[in-house]
């Protein structure tokens, strides 16, 4: 057993950090400083615009797209004679300067980077099945003890935390992997991968910004001998981050402590993951061979298969026992196409590999669709803000009346268009429908 801090290999990161504003600002980092974003608002795609405006189920939202802070990315995938994918992106109101709360979208890069860290540690016996014990060392931290159980699916491991995150968007599981990665290494690695404006700086817990800079000590055990094989010390990000959008205020008021505070809610120090970043990260996981070299995760073939399996599986279909109850219905984490309807059974011929977010009035879904009946595939990402009273945290959001029906119809409209879209070469999607053995 060896004790050490983990640091990513980041020879090129210092220059990226300065350019991205990841280094400290004078006085600990003023979040109100406005940084230059290279990503500007893109003109709307005529094709996507016409598809959106032609459907009566979408037009009520499209007509007020700015009010709903709507952003959409539709990516066509064209295969060549060797079945290699080529991507054509269409967007609607896409603007990295338009803040939205990414909520659980941050779980996808966190999951991928946790697997990558296990690989880079090169610690004998350490893998995604290694039992782990998260301890505490600072305020707002919670413990997750070593729990040797007869049922391996209930043991605290990196792999099981990823299953919980990707199947039902479990927040506690995300917190454990955020702590495993550490705030600074997590964001430095995102910058190195080409996402310098992304910020994953918070647990899903009521911790202040200083507490979120502190991450827990963690012990790992051999899954065979149960002996301690690796220890990660408590860590602290000594250099506070600044924020790409400067100060971010939303709403006319917010609720806290049971009362309404009559001023905008401050998202300045919240997590931030532009829709384009989330789309590119999913693309790099579904199509790693097509990603630019600098955006490729250091993952094994098995790692990619593991992520893809739990990205598309339903809670019941996954075979993961903790989610066998009826409360975890097929569309629990499928907003596009299914609208998170408890009555919508999953279609075996339609695989949707996705990650979703739901928080503070924002709904988001980032997905890859593969349809074995229509022999079609595409990517679709969208975020919509449904908060008619403009009060944050009051729980009065139009998720079920506006947001989810819109995302359901959006997925159906694009899927129907893709079913008849001419292609020079028909895609071979067999790899997406071959029975999977990775668990």
TrEMBL record:
Keywords linked to the UniProt accession: Hydrolase
A Pfam family assignment: Beta-lactamase2
InterPro entries per UniProt: Beta-lactam/transpept-like (IPR012338), Beta-lactam_cat (IPR045155)
Keyword Transport: no
Domain Beta-lactamase class A catalytic, first and last residues per copy: 92-221
Transmembrane residue ranges: none
Source organism, top-level taxon: Bacteria
Keyword Cytoplasm tagged: no
GO MF terms held by the record: hydrolase activity
Name of the protein in question: Serine hydrolase
Organismal lineage: Bacteria, Pseudomonadati, Bacteroidota, Cytophagia, Cytophagales
